[in-house]
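To assess whether ligand presence alters the predicted conformation, the chain was also submitted together with zinc ion. Input:
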Amino acid sequence: MLIRNATLLHGRDLDLLPSADVRISGRLIEKIGKGIAPRRGERVIDCEGLLMMPGLVNSHTHIGDSIGKDVGIDSGVEEKIHPVSGFKQRILKTSHPSHLKQFIRNSCVSMVKRGITTFIDFREGGLAGVDLLKSAAAGIPIRPVIMGRINYYQDMELVRKNSPLPRERRAELGALVAHCSGIGISGPNEFSDSVLGYFARQKTLRAIHSAETIEGNNASKRMTKRSETKRALLSRPDLLVHMTHASMEDLLLASRKGATIAVCPRANGALAEGIPNVELMMRSGCNVTIGTDNVMVNSPDMFREMDYIWKATMGMNRERLPPKSILKMATVNASQVLGGKIGVIQKNCFADCIFVEKHSIDLEPMHNPHAAIVHRVSENAIRAVMFEGEFAHGKI
Ligand SMILES: [Zn+2]
């Protein structure tokens, strides 16, 4: 397939090419240039008037709670989504799997329509939880990166005693790791140093919540005399989720260890827990990505997320931030975690793209494409979404 005359956001720096041709072969991008001649019998699509950008990567979701939208909107984060005692767990336990599955499926479809082609999901409920998400997402043109977890959490006593992961749980974790993309660890406060170290030794992707709340951070210091992030890093995470209340020291440490941060600004705001300071994270040398977190508390819409974090950051710091750096957080920055072929339009990467209508009433005249995407594009302006070289939504 040959895409012609598209305005393209190209490569890892999202460079604007006013008129580019892109050859797609199977699931991958084969060639990018100008004036590429079509092969005999090749499908040619003229994209005059369209801006072609990478499909969005939603770096942190819990779409398993899609059935609980806005339940308990007045309660705090612990009461709502604590991995053991939160009432989210009660809703999930008492709901019929077929209902859970239907709403998970709806969230996947909703994400596709909003240009999300990959999402990294924290999946509770062990193997059964992983299977539920797999079957809910089956056949939908989106890439779920499933971070599973075992149903095992330690209390303060076990954490203090540095208790290891029990033998039967090790076997359970091994089976889980073989079955999904990685481990999604609820947080360092629920595990001893020994267990976090055990997670670190698994040959798979690792993500862990850290410094989402001031209380969590204080609890870690009370219990272990170390910050939540210092302990989270014992699990050698590829992805540190939140870091809203991480100190400069924590951020510098995360940067040195090469962990990417996934911020969830609207979810943190909705839970009245603060706003992550992405400017500070970038200054510390951290690679930052964006997620929408629990569907229960926030919609899985990355365009809204970008708009919110861009302006909140500039408002908080009273300093301008290029919109391109926000757009990178929703696309190319995630490729570092996902093996380099996702979230970027360049040769040999997956052909996951969004085609935005440049002349839509919301966008015209488009004087700054990066800014327009970050704070003006909505579903209205999306003509089509491509996933692995095939149209997943809309048509051209
Ligand atoms: Zn989360």
